[in-house]
Amino acid sequence: MVLAVILTACEDANIQSPVPQAAVYLDIDIERQYPNFRPPTCQSLSFPRYGSVVYERDRLGYGGVVVWIDIEGHYCAADMCCPKCLNPHKPIEVPDNGSLAICPTCGEEFTLITQYGMPTKGICKDILRPFGVYQSSSIVHIRN
Residue 57: its pLDDT value, please? Predict the structure, then answer.
């Protein structure tokens, strides 16, 4: 069962991104911390690198971590740095923890209903930098 979860995790090592790679280590307890963050609803959680209250061991990538549930019910995660602007201090924003991420600097929009944060409006051709996601029990683990 663990192997099946790992094989369906939201990660693809062949994806290139202009966003610099930075360490990611984040565990989300959906049983205790976020009991409503469960499939099948398309929703998201945001953990900006600057300003998030996290544990000392946590690492939040280059611009932060956005975690979402895609339309198929899988947990997915990506860096919050816009691949067009590359500014970690102005991460993408997710209004109402929904399924659309917007860059406050350039206005680029990314959809959070599929496995990858695909650009949907603007001129950016790159997806959000994806992170590996797997679940064990009630913990969603996000790593790179």
Answer: 76
